[in-house]
Specification:
alpha/beta, homodimer, 170 residues, Beta-carbonic Anhydrase, Chain A, 17% strand
Chain lengths: 170, 170
């Protein structure tokens, strides 16, 4: 059964107490937060942020894909952000897969069309959590589409404690 | 000046009251929420959700890019989600740009290397908000990488009222 009726009822309560109708479009903190889709992470609450404060980008792993670079370029050029925070996390699904294993699973459960489509996708698994954060900071830093003065920091979120640990970029 | 010290202090307060250390990795609601990076949207609060409930994917516009399909395939295959909610919103930056305009702006502010990189990216602008939601539901529905029983719903979030309006898929 779809969860949509439950979501709509909850949104009705949210809208009935809504006081953010005058927020400007540009993020108050000129910040983009890039993190994983993982259900255990609420990036706004974990960072003490609220509506209006930051752009949030999320995908599997919190990796700086072309889609992320596209989004940051728009965020910076159109809405003036100049800082990026990359947050990976403990117990990430991206360390439990390899490209081969996820492609094989998708082929087995969905068939050869899925197998072909999956074969063209890099699922961006990683093995070393700290290194994955350093890699992603470096990828962003080297992109010609980011403003050169962009400040980039990297963190690991511990899903057992809710605590962020900063990762040295070098 | 970087906002990192402020974020770290806020995270220390979050961690000191953290009670979610036992949450399982699979999302409680078997749901993926795909929405825009826009600062005015807090998808969890707007839908009455919390840590542990759903996977959240966010990019510029809330569009179903390859990166989004990659992430949903992982979410479904590894962590059992079977429903997707697509949420676009009023006053979206994606209706204020065209591929030509954003590429020209990036070239002017960052130089020819940025112009070449931007020329290879579709920034996924749109003009009709309702149609953009319908298009994105259709793109997801037709992907060979999604489980065939996936339920997909589409919504528009009104940034002035905080209210969601469902979009008919046809």
């Amino acid at each position: 059964m779809s969860i949509v009726p439950e979501l709509m009822a909850a949104n009705e309560r949210y809208a009935s107490q809504f006081t953010n109708g005058d927020l400007p479009m540009p993020p108050r903190h000129k910040l983009v937060v890039l993190t994983c889709m993982d259900a255990r992470i609420d990036p706004l609450r974990a960072l003490g942020l609220a509506e209006g404060d930051v752009h949030v980008l999320r995908n599997s792993g919190g990796r700086p894909t072309i889609d992320v670079v596209r989004s940051i370029a728009v965020s910076q050029e159109m809405l003036g952000t100049r800082e990026i925070v990359v947050i990976h996390h403990t117990e990430c699904g991206s360390v439990r897969i390899t490209n081969d294993s996820i492609r094989q699973r998708l082929t087995e459960s969905l068939g050869p069309d899925a197998g072909r489509a999956a074969g063209e996708i890099d699922f961006l698994p990683f093995t070393d959590l700290d290194q994955s954060v350093r890699d992603d900071m470096a990828i962003l830093k080297s992109s010609p589409l980011l403003q050169p003065e962009t400040e980039i920091s990297g963190f690991i979120f511990d899903v057992k404690t809710g605590r962020l640990q900063q990762v040295d970029p070098t």
